[in-house]
Amino acid sequence: MARSRTSKFDAPEAITNELIRIIERGVLPWRKPWTAGGSARPLRHNSERYGLIHPDIRAAARAKTITLDTMKAFADHPSQDVQREVFEALTCDDSYVQAYTVRQALKTRGVQVSDDIGAFVREEYEARGGPIAADLLEEHSVLEDIALVETIMVEKLTAAAEEARVEMGFAWAESLVRYDYATMAEYDTDGIVYPASLTQDLKTERAMALGAAMTLHPEATLDLTLFKLVTDVLGGMSATHGIKVEARKEYRSHAKMDEIDGTSLEQVAEAHDALDLSWADEAKSPADQFAAFRALEAGEKAKLVAYATASTTQSCFARSRQSDSLMYDFEIEIMPDVRAHWTPNAALFNRFKKAWLLKILGEELGLAQEAVTLASMSKKEIVAFCDKLFAEPFATLTEAQHVAVAAWCPPMMQTTGGASLVVDAVEEAAQVEMVQAKAA
Q1: Closest-CA residue to 85 (of 51, 65, 108)
Q2: In this predicted model, what pLDDT tens digit does every residue of 157-176 receive, in sequence order?
Q3: What sign does the dihedral 162-167-173-179 (CA atoms) show?
Q4: Of the candidates 253, 418, 260, 401, which has an alpha carbon nearest to the alpha carbon of residue 343?
Q5: Which of 37, 150, 213, 289 is the most exposed place for a label (fewest CB within 10 A)?
Q6: Separation in Å, CA 138 to CA 112, 115, 134
Q7: What Cα–Cα distance (Å) separates residue 246 from each residue in 225, 229, 327?
Q8: Per the database record, which ranges form the N-terminal domain (predicted)?
C-alpha cells in the first residue's frame, strides 16, 4: 500500500532530531572525525560541548522554536547561566532568533581566550585575577570581565601607540576600544562633500538672498516680471525658470529655518514696511482697490511687484549662461555678491565635519595658524570660533584675511559673475601685504 502524504518521510527533520540526540548523549571516540576550519577534531569533542548547552535551549531546538545552528551558537559561552540569560532576553518578545544574533549577544558577556583580543590581554588578565569561565576545550574558555579586558587592552595599546608616536614624530596618539567610524570618516577625504540635505537647504537660502536683492532693485525686477509674464504667454516657451509668476507665494523648505542667517529676511521685511499698501483696504471692493492701485506712482508699483516676485524665487545655485542666460545676467546685475544678503553662521558650520572646518580656515581663509590651534579642540568650539569670525571679523586679521572672510561662501552659492572679482580682490590684497612686508 502506498505511503500517505501525511506520513511522508521528512529527511531534514529526522536528521536534525538525530543530531540533537547524538549531541546530548555524546559520541564514542572511535567515530568518524569532524573536520572544520581545515583541522580534524573528533566529533566527540564537539558533541560534548553542545551537550553542555542549557537544556531549555536544546528543548527549543527540538521543538523547532530555534534552528540547530542557533542552538549551536550558544556553545560559544561555557556558562549555562549566561546561555539561559541571553536566550531569555532574545526570545522574550517571541522574535525570530538567528545564530548571528546569539553570537553578538554572547560577545557582550565575555571574550574567548582564542580571540585576538583574548590572546592579547590574557596574561595580564590572569595576573590581575580576572574571572575565567572554563570550557572543555581550552581555546573556548571565556574571559568574563569585559571591563577589565577593555582596560588592559587600552593600556597595552596606549603604550604601543606612545612608542610609535615618539618614533614617527606625531603630535599625539590615542587608543580606542572600538574603531570610531564617524571620527575617522573626517580624514578619509581631502575635499568638502556637501550632503544632499545641506545642498538643498543652501539652495533655499540662496533663493531667499536673491529675493532680498530683488526688493532692493524694484525697477529691474519689475521689468523682469513683465518680461517673464509676456514671454511665457506669447513665446510658448518659458524664458527662465528662475522665478515663477503665479498668484501664490513659493513655499520655503529648510531643515534649520529658525537658525539660519536672517539678513535676507530682515531686508525683505524692511522692503515690506516701505510698501504703499493704502490701496489694499479689505473694506474696499476689488474694483475700488484696483482703482487705488492704478493711482499709485510708478515707483510704488514697481516696489509692490518686486516684493511679490521676490517671494517666487526658486531654490537653485548660481545659474550658468548656457542653461539660463536671462537669470545669469540678471543676478550679476542685482546680486553680484551673495554675501550682501547672506552670512554663514553656526547653522551651516554645525553641518560641516571638523576636518572640513579646519580645511576652510587654513586653506580658504588663510588662517593656517588658527586651524592648527583649533585642531586639538572639539568641533563645538571650532563652530563657535567660525560663527564669531563671520559675525564680526577680528581686528587682528590681515587685509587678505579680511577680504577672504567677507567673501567666503560655499562656491556654488556665489553669483558666477562675481567669483572672479573676489579672487582678484584676495590676490590684490595679498600682493599689497607682500610689498609692505618687503618695505619693512
Answers
A1: 108
A2: 888 888 888 888 888 788 87
A3: negative
A4: 260
A5: 37
A6: 9, 12, 7
A7: 10, 9, 18
A8: 10-51
